[in-house]
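We now fix the convention by which a protein and its fold are recorded. The integers have meaning only within a learned vocabulary of local backbone shapes. A record is reproduced here so that you can trace the correspondence yourselves:
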Amino acid sequence: MPITLATPSADLFDSWAGTVTEFGDVHIDGAGLERGMLPDRAACEAFIAKAELYGRLGAELPEGHVPCDYFWIADGDEVVGFIAFRRELNDWLRSYGGHIGYSVRPSRRREGVAGAALNLVLDRARDQGYERVMLTCDDDNTGSYRTIEGAGGELVATIDAAEAGHPRLRQYWISL
């Protein structure tokens, strides 16, 4: 089946919970989840409400947060990862996060899932009138930087990102 972007839904709870569990106790880029969160029904429902709020135009968000469209990367009815499109950049995102963050569950990596999902989000950004988007990845994350470069990413800087919890980050812009 082709990779699709699924709106977060309780209908996919079992697959979502399995994906979150597979990542273990790490930050999951693009998932919109707090590290260490238990992937139970209450957490899933809370995230679905968060995704609806952050995706609503004009919504009042916590200070320092920006409007964001959260998607579950799906292969049929299996959640295989997460991707988020942040519609604005604040100072922190302009340095460390960018417009788009994503993660693919470990058992589904190296299958082109991230590239397919990234291209779907880039199509959405293009349709919404964005001329370019920023992405970042750890300097040593070969899979991620190859995915970004494969989507047309132009490396603009490699920065020390210790204050953001990363040793070094690559900053990219993709022209749409």
